[in-house]
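Structure (tokenized):
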């Protein structure tokens, strides 16, 4: 597979930034909203935004169950920030009724790094990303409290887990799509190619 087709779940969040980063990482990228659009994808990105809203809209648009099934069946997925929350099997502090797609055996804490005005940037060393640390943009970012035996920790910051990979699924607490550095997206595109 030379140029994989990767969707960006376009219910809410920073969809455009992920589309740009994926195109720069040599993927054919397009927005995805409806369940029937999942067919034919080589991979899918779940953007940053607000996980409670993404959860609600996923149910409303009928993609919650089909996407859960696709991830279980091996669709490569990458989530940033709210997307990381959506890929967690368990949220420590969910809003009532909040659901996730799951895929990574981890427990996440929403807004763990503080509120909007406590957002920050920090250098983060990510396993599998060559050429030095990436600039992590943390905006009302979650952290990962704990991971199961199948999950591999890719990065930590301030003593907390901020990037994880398990099988076909990968997630970061921070937003590489906002920096113009496409190495995390390249890592995901390489995983998508390897899976195809
Ligand atoms: N705190 C947000 C949530 O719970 C995530 C913030 C983000 O994606 N920048 O979804």
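Design, position by position:
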């Amino acid at each position: 597979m030379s140029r994989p087709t990767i969707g960006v779940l376009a219910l809410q969040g920073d969809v455009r930034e992920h589309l740009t980063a994926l195109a720069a990482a040599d993927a054919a990228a397009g927005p995805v909203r409806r369940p029937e659009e999942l067919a034919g994808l080589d991979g899918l990105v779940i953007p940053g935004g607000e996980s409670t809203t993404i959860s609600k809209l996923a149910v409303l648009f009928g993609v919650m169950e089909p996407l859960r099934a696709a991830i279980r069946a091996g669709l490569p997925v990458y989530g940033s920030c709210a997307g990381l929350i959506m890929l967690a099997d368990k949220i420590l502090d969910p809003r009532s009724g909040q659901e996730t797609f799951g895929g990574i055996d981890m427990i996440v804490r929403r807004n763990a790094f503080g509120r909007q005005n406590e957002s920050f940037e920090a250098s983060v060393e990510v396993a599998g990303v060559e050429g030095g640390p990436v600039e992590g943009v943390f905006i009302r970012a979650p952290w990962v409290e704990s991971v199961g035996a199948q999950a591999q920790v890719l990065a930590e910051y301030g003593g907390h887990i901020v990037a994880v990979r398990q099988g076909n699924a990968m997630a970061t607490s921070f937003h590489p799509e906002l920096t113009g550095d496409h190495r995390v997206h390249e890592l995901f595109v390489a995983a998508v190619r390897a899976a195809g």
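Reviewer-requested clarification: The pocket of glutamine is lined by residues 48-51, 81-82, 85, 110-111, 139-140 (CB under 6 Å). The chain has one domain: 5-195.
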